[in-house]
Amino acid sequence: MVKRNKHENEKPPLPTTPLPPPVGELPVQYKRMSASRTDPPAPPSNRLYGFIPVLICVSLLWFAWSQWHNPPQVQQQPVRVEDHHKKRVWWMPDLLKTLPPFAEGYRLENFVPKYKISGCAINGNFPEINAAIFCFLHNSTLFTAANKTISEDLGENGLCSKIKSFTMTDWKLWKKHITDKKVRRVAFVQNPLERFARTFRKICEIERKCLNCQENVGCFMRKLIKEHEKVAEGLAGHVRTYITNYFSPQSWNCHFNRQLRTVETLKIGGNQTELARFSDELNKILGEQGVPKEAQKTIKEEVMKIPLTLSADERRIMEKIKKDEDLLRIFRYLYEHDYIIFGFDI
Ligand SMILES: *[C@@H]1O[C@H](CO)[C@@H](O)[C@H](O)[C@H]1NC(C)=O
Ligand SMILES: *[C@@H]1O[C@H](CO)[C@@H](O)[C@H](O)[C@H]1NC(C)=O
Ligand SMILES: *[C@@H]1O[C@H](CO)[C@@H](O)[C@H](O)[C@H]1NC(C)=O
């Protein structure tokens, strides 16, 4: 047995790591890898080079078009669409406080069981027109017997005013016929300033019943605020005075405080165009309740005969309030929510 040399037991020396190539030269292995690529490239085709700028242009154009045509849906913060400082009346600041809407709601009902419909009349919104139309639906024989038409029955005591089941003044009757049953309810609403001007002309200027203010609209509205605030706060109980009833905000009627969503509102007033639109909308509802075409036609003809355009005096009152910042501010304090609830432009 050959004695092994001591040196033979030693591990072979580690291969020496090659020195790093001088800066700027590739290490050997990379040299080898790239060697195959060192062949001179095929001579570029001039046609291909000419095509590149065209391709870039076309893709840029396509990109621009696709962005314009179909912009990417970016998750955005909610955008403030309307100017935060835009005012409801361009020349005066918005109100921070108004009289509350929906005080204990009065209702003056005109119920027609035959068509399961009831018209709620609001003081100041031609309650006599409401009564005459629904009375005609209730029993048109009353009109023929009295030799009258709808437009001729616009007094305080219409032909149906004595019929208890029509006027529904009794809570027991109301409960029996209206609650739990599917009765359609409509109310006529009016532009708040037009309504105020008409009522002020009639009750303050002609009847002179307006809290000793005679024709002074500013004096009257200031006193009216005090009266209305008592009603709004419940301090006056369920009682309204002649004045607080006639000048009540519209939302204080028809039990809007409980049934806003179940009462349909129709805008009445204005010129012949607006009156025609009103009667068309009313007839649409009546048609759905089964009122015959013939009766609808009569109603429209009669409604168009009622003159509702504002008189010169009424327009004077409106203009006075509109032009005076102080008066308009008080007016809006009283009736701003009627504009919002019933959808009128101020
Ligand atoms: C309608 O009025 C006429 C005349 O007053 C009356 O004879 C008739 O009974 C009334 N009809 C109904 C359904 O109330
Ligand atoms: C019905 O009233 C019209 C006018 O309103 C009148 O001309 C006519 O004579 C009256 N008819 C009857 C029967 O009273
Ligand atoms: C009727 O009133 C409306 C709104 O105020 C107005 O746009 C319209 O021009 C008026 N039509 C006529 C015939 O006066």
From TrEMBL:
Membrane-crossing residues?
48-68
A GO biological process held by the record: chondroitin sulfate proteoglycan biosynthetic process
Query: Molecular function terms in GO for this entry?
Result: chondroitin 4-sulfotransferase activity
Compositionally biased residues, Pro residues: 12-24
Keyword ATP-binding annotated: no
Q: Which cellular component terms (GO) are annotated to the entry?
A: membrane
Q: Which UniProt keywords apply?
A: Membrane, Transmembrane, Transmembrane helix
Query: Which InterPro entries does the entry mention?
Result: Chst-1-like (IPR007669), Sulfotransferase (IPR005331)
Location of the region described as Disordered in the Swiss-Prot/TrEMBL record: 1-26
Q: Where would one find coiled-coil regions in this protein? A: none
Q: Which PANTHER family match?
A: CARBOHYDRATE SULFOTRANSFERASE, PROTEIN CBG14245-RELATED
Name of the protein described by the UniProt record: Uncharacterized protein
Q: Which organism is it from?
A: Caenorhabditis latens
